[in-house]
Amino acid sequence: MKAIRRFTVRPVLPEPLRPLHDLARNLRWSWHTETRELFRSADPEAWRPADADPVRLLGSLSAGRLAELAGDAEYLGRLAAASADLAEYLEGPRWYQEQQAAGAELPAGIAYFSPEFGVTAALPQYSGGLGILAGDHLKAASDLGVPLIGVGLLYRHGYFRQTLSRDGWQQEHYPVLDPNELPLDLVREADGTPARVVLALPGGRSLHACVWLARVGRVPLLLLDSDVEENAPGERDVTDRLYGGGSDHRLLQEMLLGIGGVRAVRTWCRLTGAPEPEVFHTNEGHAGFLGLERIRELVAEGLGFEPALETVRAGAVFTTHTPVPAGIDRFDRGLVARHFGDDGELPGVPVEKVLALGTETYPGGRPELFNMAVMGLRLAQRANGVSTLHGAVSREMFSGLWAGFDPAEVPITSVTNGVHAPTWVAPEVFRLGAGRIGEDRAHQVLAGGPVTGGEAEPGATPRRWDAVSGIADQEIWDLRRDLRGQLVTEVRRRLYASWRRRGAGTAELGWIDGVLDPDVLTIGFARRVPSYKRLTLMLRDRDRLRELLLHPTHPIQIVVAGKAHPADDGGKRLVQELVRFADDPRVRHRIVFLPDYGMGMAQKLYPGCDVWLNNPLRPLEACGTSGMKAALNGCLNLSVRDGWWDEWFDPDFGWEIPTADGSAVDEDRRDELESNALYALIEDRVAPHFYDRGAAGLPDRWIAMVRSTLVNLGPKVLAGRMVREYVERLYAPAARARRALEPAAARDLAAWKAKVHAAWPGVSVDHVESASDTAECGSAELGATLALRARIALGGLDPDDVEVQAVAGRVDSGDAIADAQVFPLKPAGGQDLEDRWLFEGPLALDRTGPYGYTVRVLPAHPRLATSAELGLVALPAEAAGEGAGVLLR
């Protein structure tokens, strides 16, 4: 019999237990050990760390148990302490407030938009690394006191839950999530009615959404939900599932996230008195429409489109996580056009200007498509990749937007991702360190903020956990075995449940009790399953892998997990291939595939593994933070030099898998070479390090690497370090730029840009000459100085509108300049009869060997973030003799 109406019955807590409600509704419990322990002790049998949910737990407690807890003085004392600690955490000054008190100019508020957020398994609104990164960003911002507002969508089905068929094929399931049973509260107007966000759709239709609030420590996370009665069935399903549906569905999701998200932020600030954000951070292109909504707001206030665009750009930060063009959302221009303009959203903003922002104007681009990442870059004055290598890849990938500049000069920087240590460090690892420096200082170290009560932290570099250096080898080894043993228990439980869902009977599963061994070297591999991550590279030579798994003295065991996108049959075939190998009775006690990879599983997997494996096709891994989480628990990395591992690899932290780079190597040959390198590393170096014992019966070299990973690598991978870099390098400059662009200044800047764009076809480098006391024909001496003179046509611009530079450095056989240095040339006279200006300056020769220079002209304005911002550069014509690039040998 089916119910005709559904509602949620909430528990009524006895008065002494009322603080439990606030503790359960603030997601800080997900990374605060003492609060989690408080909930666990309320019902130890019902509390499972892998899928813990205090809201659900409180709803399941019987009246008798609640009465018992209400009369337990010891429990009430712990409750009072936890409640007081949360209050101090939420209200007390932290790193950000201390920086403001010291005079730092920081934004009053920052809005952070992301299509997914992985905060806790109890709020399943994530699919993989992008969402986990966003969740860690919010948590670290909370720990540091950064006034962030998170903005996302509430997906009623979340991402999918993964099971396996009997033959190992991935099955997807979409459980319905009831927001009333999640740690969420509905945002309401002052009169108690639900706050609403409304978007106009073509044909006079509307898309309505309510706004749910998740409290992530000090950070409010606003989640928009289209499943409301005002919507027609099609519109109700806009937020049905993460990354689901066709192009029209995805476009509506991204319009709701970006445009609706800005409106939700305005509503939140109006209702709570929170400062309006000065900086808007777009985490990947999915939320890029937020910039258009901000332009619409300013246009409605009387500012023209171009000045509004400059104002929006000044206060915007765009982060790209995508190392390949195929990973970027692109929509048909006609589809986008139908949703904007007077019959849709953003009235007053010309449709052709909207379309121009997303047009692929570079060689090889498809002008019929609307590119969300291109729009994101054009709407943000500051942009970044998520590792040093990914920054370089991004500059190359988007270099067409800045034609005439070398990729190294493309204005995309990088902030290497970090992970939220209090979330990912196992309690046992935390206690080991806290036993040496105390819990308060250990919390501060993991949060990435300044350490009080001890040595001052130098600059922006988080303090190293130096106390780990004094921990005895035996303690570290015992800890590692304990964590490995916990993983073995967890794997057996999950594997048994998986086989039962695959249709196996109890009588078939006795072998699971012997799966894995707490004394065997354990390798972990868990991530999404696109082809470039190469889930099955380890299967390239199956006989060799079996030999490694079953080695008589140096065996290994492997735990694998990962989800393929529901529409990716190729990824599903990779999963099936791995599962079928792991099902082989000869090796199934040494290699397992665990379905339904998520945060709950990960929090056991990272600490329990000895080695974390990552073997993507370089350089397609933007960052790859799973290895960071493993490292924080003393797990060593075995990885291709991609993402973060490329910049922070050290032999004391793990091993580098050699790559077979080069255009002459086809994909099949590359996989063969790199898989052989992987097998050899495990056989010759990794396993011997683990099993070779010293005089005390311990693997001395292995333990030394674990200690070095914790002490020296740990501080680098903290999300606190990452957020501080965002604040200092991107948020603060963006806020200053935005404050400087009051309407009059914005109009002046827009007018100046229009003038420069109109005049630029007439800007040219007409003649360049040099003189030197030591220069002879085609050569010069080290230490000499060339006096450069350049005649520049400015096309009606003034000298103050441009910057003239000599660009010099070593040259290759094709006369391309590498490791360039820039030398400014200054105006040295007025216009000549041909309307050219003279610029002069010295060029110091501080390098030997083939050397060359050229001269270029760039737009110059004090409000530009970089000289490449406009994408305009004038260079000498190739036929201009020495001006095209003089070569000195």
From TrEMBL:
Keywords: Allosteric enzyme, Carbohydrate metabolism, Glycosyltransferase, Pyridoxal phosphate, Transferase. One of its GO terms (molecular function) is 1,4-alpha-oligoglucan phosphorylase activity. Its cofactor is pyridoxal 5'-phosphate. Residues 13-123 form the DUF3417 domain. NCBIfam families: more_P_ylases (TIGR02094). Belongs to the glycogen phosphorylase family. This is glycogen phosphorylase. It comes from Streptomyces californicus. The lineage of its organism: Bacteria, Bacillati, Actinomycetota, Actinomycetes, Kitasatosporales. The gene is glgP.
